[in-house]
């Protein structure tokens, strides 16, 4: 009787210990209130690089690197820029989520990049899988949360805009085929850390937030439009609604630092 009691106590203790370890492991993985850091602060092992003129997985010129606990985009190992637009993709797609990215522009713009790329970068989402992109595809078929800073000329320059390489959206209730649509954000200084938030509800409502202010809403992201070239035609069935896809950080000639990339999946 005593032996059985001890055995049962041991089984209960073992079960409790395993459950506690499992919960502890889950907490470390998931984080507080369901938030997960997509960037581990050490390396880019969970990410996939695709740069124009290069095969997927080739991090030309060490464009994307980890230094000082941040993801940095740099061009110091380039020769000519040669429209080598790049994107760093997290390894799996998402559909319903709240994304937070903290960024700041850094260093000097690469002067032989296109002029519109000055103090310009982006967060791509609902993107095609980078492994479906041919070597000479310039941009991923995706939606872009555009990141801009003021040029110091006294003119307004909003950030948190929407751009649409190979896609369209429904804005103010109608299909809008403009490539970029400005948000209502304030102009941000190039030296300022910015908190960019994106709330994506599949193919329904999409919300852009800049430093806590909601600056844009739209819906029904879908394949269509121009800008993208060099792609496999099978990957661009115009009119197809996008309800999920990959998230990527952009490189297009302007050095930039990303110190936080966190996501909370929404049921």
Automatic annotation (TrEMBL):
It comes from the Bacteria. InterPro entries: AL/BT2_dom. One of its GO terms (molecular function) is hydrolase activity. Residues 34-264 form the 3-keto-alpha-glucoside-1,2-lyase/3-keto-2-hydroxy-glucal hydratase domain. This is 3-keto-alpha-glucoside-1,2-lyase/3-keto-2-hydroxy-glucal hydratase domain-containing protein.
């Amino acid at each position: 009787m005593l032996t059985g009691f001890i055995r049962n106590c041991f089984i209960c203790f073992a079960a409790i210990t395993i459950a506690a370890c499992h919960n502890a492991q889950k907490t470390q993985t998931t984080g507080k209130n369901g938030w997960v850091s997509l960037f581990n602060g050490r390396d880019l092992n969970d990410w996939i690089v695709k740069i124009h003129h290069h095969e997927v997985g080739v991090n030309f010129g060490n464009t994307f690197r980890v230094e000082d606990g941040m993801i940095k985009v740099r061009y110091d190992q380039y020769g000519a820029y040669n429209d080598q637009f790049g994107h760093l993709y997290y390894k799996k797609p998402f559909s319903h989520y709240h994304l937070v990215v903290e960024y700041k522009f850094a260093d000097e713009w690469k002067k032989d990049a296109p002029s519109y790329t000055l103090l310009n970068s982006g967060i791509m989402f609902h993107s095609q899988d980078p492994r479906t992109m041919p070597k000479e595809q310039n941009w991923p078929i995706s939606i872009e949360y555009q990141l801009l800073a003021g040029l110091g000329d006294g003119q307004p320059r909003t950030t948190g805009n929407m751009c649409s390489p190979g896609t369209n959206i429904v804005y103010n209730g109608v299909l809008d085929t403009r490539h970029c649509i400005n948000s209502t954000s304030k102009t941000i200084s190039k030296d300022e850390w910015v908190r960019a938030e994106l709330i994506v509800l599949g193919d329904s409502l999409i919300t852009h937030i800049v430093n806590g202010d909601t600056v844009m809403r739209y819906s029904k992201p879908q394949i269509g439009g121009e800008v993208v070239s060099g792609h496999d035609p099978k990957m661009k069935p115009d009119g197809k609604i996008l309800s999920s896809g990959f998230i990527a950080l952009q490189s297009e000639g302007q050095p930039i630092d990303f110190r936080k990339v966190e996501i909370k999946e929404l049921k």
